[in-house]
Amino acid sequence: MANSKGFSSTQFYLNDKVINDYVDLINERYPHVYVFNTFFYCNLSVRGYDFVRRWARKYDLLSKKKLMIPIHIQISSHWVLVCVNFETKEIQYYDSLGGHNFEAQHIIFNYLNNKYLDQTGSSLCAKDWRLVTVENIPHQENGHDCGVFVCTFAEYLARGAVFNFTQKNMKSFRQLIAYELTVKRLVDVDVDAKDIDSFIMNVINS
Questions:
Q1: CB 164 within 8 A of CB 196
Q2: Per annotation, catalytic residue among 21, 72, 78, 145
Q3: pLDDT digits (tens, 9 = 90+) for 136-177
Q4: pTM to 2 decimals?
Q5: Where are the alpha helices (DSSP H) in 53-145?
Q6: In this structure, are residues 10 and 175 in contact, taking their beta carbons and an 8 Å threshold?
Q7: What angle do CA 179, 183, 188 make, to 5 degrees?
Q8: What is the 8-class DSSP label of residue 171?
Q9: CA geometry: angle 188, 181, 38, nearest 5 deg
Q10: What is d(CA 191, CA 197) in angstroms, rounded to the nearest whole number?
């Protein structure tokens, strides 16, 4: 299956274009969260806060429950996700390969602090926030599904759903992403773990 923008469900690596199109669907569906596009972190980390301070300016980012940032780790060609959780005051790092990246979390916290300073005139209290590498999450068992994991992590986090999927479901989620991008709407996979694959196949083939 290929969508109108050329993403095939058999495509191994999800590139910026695919992930950003999927991010747009999440932002349209869930107004209580905001997911930055894949170019945000690269520009923030290299060019600094002033370069990105007007990104997403039409959104009140500090009013959201969650901010999410997909990050491409160049050295390993690997996608990960950072989630700013305002309710728990955590900068959460989701890596399907089980890695950690405190540098990225610090960069995101500094961005958040600068954004807060811009809007309120005061700084965040750093001791109130935690940098968390989220463990016991679905683990990637190959070298090419990281983008699918990131998209699925982000959609489940936006929906407030429990991660009940595994590597064995990634082929189905890859096909679902292609379908969602084609029909331009998200599908809630709100079923028991054992029913994920059959549910997705029924949606795609209906």
A1: yes
A2: 78
A3: 999 999 999 999 999 999 999 999 999 999 999 999 999 999
A4: 0.93
A5: 102-120
A6: no
A7: 65
A8: H
A9: 95
A10: 10
Confidence category of residue 47, pLDDT binned at 50, 70, 90: very high
CB-based contact 168:31 (threshold 8 Å): no
Assess contact for 37 and 55: CB atoms under 8 A. no
Q: Which of 145, 146, 151, 197 is catalytic?
A: 146
Average pLDDT, the chain: 93
190 is catalytic: no
Return the structure tokens found at 88.
């728990």
Taken in order 63, 160, 71, 29, the sign of the CA dihedral is negative
The per-residue DSSP string of 154-165 comes to HHHHHHT-----
Q: Do strands 33-35 and 66-73 pair parallel, antiparallel, or not at all (unpaired)?
A: parallel
Tell me if residue 139 is catalytic: no
Distance separating alpha carbons of residues 6 and 28, to the nearest angstrom:
21
146 in active site? yes
What is the helix (H) or strand (E) element at residue 150, kind and residue range?
Answer: helix 146-159
